[in-house]
Amino acid sequence: MMASGVNAMKKTLLITGAALLAGLANAQTYYTEGHADIGIGHDGTNWDLHFHDDTGMTEYAPEDVVIVAPLSSQWATPASNFGFTGVAGGGSIFRLRQTAFAGQPFLGIGTEEFLAPSASYTDSDARLNRVFGTNAGEWVSLELVNVTGPGVFSLWSNDPDGSGTPLVWMSSNDGISSSDRYVAQPGAHDHANWGFSKAGTYEVTVRGKFWDGSAFQTSDNATYTFQAVPEPASMAALGLGLVGLLRRRNKKSV
User: Fold this and answer.
1) pLDDT computed for residue 162 by the predictor
2) pTM for this predicted structure
3) Count of alpha carbons within 13 Å of 58, Cβ hemisphere only?
4) CB < 8 Å & 24+ apart, contacts of 48-52
5) Predicted local distance difference test score (pLDDT) of residue 231
6) Where are the domains of the chain?
7) Residue 1 — pLDDT band, cuts 50, 70, 90?
């Protein structure tokens, strides 16, 4: 009877262990620090919106990664010009910075893999003149489609023209419109600030768009997941992220 019970226990443990490993294999990868990019790729035929790990030189599908804004990313907004973040001046948000900061994700936006034949045109968006000094060029847009989460998501650049005000690309504070988009040029790489007004999980859905000379071409939607998570919860997330590496797709190792 005892031997039979031990064997049954071993069998149960093996089944439980196998189920646990299967669950871990389906876990997502948690991005907690280092350099990475939201990639906007196009090979001339197909779009490829992805997540590019610049440290491991590996690409992931958007749904396979959770981008973490840790407790150390909390930041008090200036007294004015930052209402778009969803908090009053001096209020606290979670912010992934435009410049590298130790122990935090350094998240950029890259179009190095954008190889589609695009055409120059004059865009009416005045923000382009602040960044590029002109509204004419070959533009690749990352458009905001939807945000779900406990607070406001925003994306902005630090004062690019010395005017003293930030350049706001996206903000869900006042709803989402056609003006909620980040604009770059093919072959570019840049960084901006990513803001989250409250702790919690955000799903940010975007799509790519460009002008090919005769029509605008638009990608399918891609959803990126962000977690503004104070410690120690983020440490638990990191633990899951380590096993989440098992799910690495290694789609385009460079």
Assistant:
1) 83
2) 0.83
3) 13
4) 48/113, 49/206, 49/207, 49/208, 49/219, 49/220, 49/222, 50/251, 50/252, 51/224, 52/110
5) 53
6) 2-247
7) very low
